[in-house]
Amino acid sequence: MCYGNVHMPEDDDNLPPLRAQDYSEANDWPGYFAAVVGKEPRETLIAALDAFAREGFTDGLAVDIAAGEGRDTLALLGRGWRVMAMDGHPEAFTHLWPRVPDTLKRRLRTIEADFAEMKIEHCDFVNASFALPFCEPRHFPALWSRIVEAIRPGGRFAGQFFGDRDDWASMPGRTHHSRDQVLQLLESFEIELMREEERDDTPEVRKPKHWQIFHIAARKR
Ligand SMILES: C[S@@+](CC[C@H](N)C(=O)[O-])C[C@H]1O[C@@H](n2cnc3c(N)ncnc32)[C@H](O)[C@@H]1O
Asked: Which atom of ligand 1 sits closest to the CA of residue 1?
């Protein structure tokens, strides 16, 4: 597993503070976990859970891919789901486990796994928040096939794809998609939410960038 050699510049009073995006850019996942710990679950996760709830389905098995420090996993557990949380960095789970209420611990399994080797079990829901763009392009097609195969008919996928106009698209090891490619990936799904976010950072950020993000919640046919 390779996270690259991370060197984050020391914080400097003259520079804007380091934010989650700075740690993500550098693949500094411990730094990222510390920057986002305790944040709200993602809108795509909530959209999918609300759609399940409207169908009267509230206690399935979810696989949370690249779960990070666990913002979405905790929300899933809180709403009655069983969760298999996977991440390539062991520190993700040292943030997560102490925050899981004792009564919910038996519903959670955590597995340290790289995208290249992740085995995704048959499930109702795959959640992949801000995860798949960090998979190396050579491993992405197989990973995506495993995700699609794992979700039962009527189950859901939620997560983000980064667009080809996003500044990080030229970074080695990252996987970005055009809008048409995203639609192609989702051809066996009925798209329930597709929000395209395209914007520039304001200049106060340390390293302003252009963002293009597709926020997705979709139901497998
Ligand atoms: C931007 S974070 C997203 C975390 C969380 N899902 C969220 O929404 O905050 C990306 C996650 O991908 C994980 N990751 C990065 N490269 C990975 C790899 N090769 N295999 C598995 N996980 C990886 C990191 O450890 C990190 O938790």
From this structure: 19
